[in-house]
Amino acid sequence: MRVSVSVLATTAILSTRGVLSGEVITPVSVEAGLTYDPPALINASNLDSSDRDILNWTHNPTSHDAGCWKGSANPIADLPPITFDLGQPYVLLCLYTWNYSHTNPAYGGRQMRSFVVNISTNGDTWTTLTTVHLPGDNEGVLLQRTNVTRIDARTRYVRFSDFHAYSEDVHGAEAGLGEVRFEGWPASGILLVIL
Ligand SMILES: [Ca+2]
User: pTM, whole model, 2 decimals?
Assistant: First the structure.
């Protein structure tokens, strides 16, 4: 299949890596049920974003949970889903995830091992996109780029669910994530032609 892309927006470029890239998307809101500090996922808390390239950003560990989202459930898979609102529909290209990080290695088991990603245009009808698998080395960097290019979908909402942590019994079954971003093009600004 050959794909040609007519771009009306100025945000989409062909990168030097030879893959399509778009703009970094910071969600406008996040909901995560009765869990600890969901806004920490999208407010750049503990995120070193001084470098222009998001692939060089780090999520710095702390001696407590500040800067990370965290929830408790047994099993971890029962944690309520995390739902991000991107603010407008996007053609999604990839997800950026920084795992939970803590200066005490004993809490490394709170790091997320995997979760399922669903996308939606209207917040009612959902499509399963992929399963994200994260490294669990608790080094405080832990950026995971997951390519999810969906040129056929207009994604406004993204939902993470079906969580699995590196340890299911840390402090009464707790698990978390550090920060989340996405990459894509505003759907209103592009015209896709699939040949
Ligand atoms: Ca954070």
Answer: 0.86
